[in-house]
Amino acid sequence: MSLQFSRGDEEIAELFKDIGIKRNAARVLVLMFRDSDLTSRDMERICDLRQPEVSIALTYLIKRKWVKKVNQYSENKGRPVLIYHLGRSIDDILEELKNEIVGDYDEKIKEIEKVKELLKEQN
User: I need a labelling partner for 7 at 20 to 30 A (CA). Which of 27, 40, 106, 110 fits?
Assistant: First the structure.
């Protein structure tokens, strides 16, 4: 695993941002596409984010069911380490985004048609 975000990763994250995913969530998601089993500390370091930023991004991604967390117990006593991995395939995530955009588009078209109807009724 590369320990830094590549130019290609940046470009993909920027496209996700343009689609409507917040910047930090987009960066974490792109990283998860690259290497599916990561700790939040890995994400902080590779994405150059602070702990609260990674936490907020993960909360969003988990709520969407795109990322899952698993406890990994170590040999030593102590708290288990949380490992994060993709909860859905890349194709499923992209398809979900596409369907949301199409749905939003269709809804906006209906609203425009409703405005047209209301304006005609006023004249």
Answer: 40
Packed helices 23-34 and 51-63: angle between N→C axes, nearest 10 degrees = 80
Q: Is the dihedral of CA 120, 121, 122, 123 positive or negative?
A: positive
Q: Is the CB of residue 11 less than 8 Å from the CB of residue 33?
A: no
Whether the pLDDT of residue 2 is over 60: the answer is: no
Which whole number is the average pLDDT over 100-108? 91
H helices of the chain, in order, are 7-19, 23-34, 40-47, 51-63, 90-122
Please provide residue 92's backbone torsions phi and psi, each rounded to the nearest 5 degrees: -65, -40
Number of Cβ atoms within 10 Å of the Cβ of 21: 22
Chain CA centroid to CA 91, Å = 13
Cα–Cα distance between 45 and 109 in angstroms, integer?
Answer: 43
Q: Which residues on adjacent β-strands are paired with residue 71? A: 82
**How far, in Å, CA of 69 to CA of 71, rounded?**
7
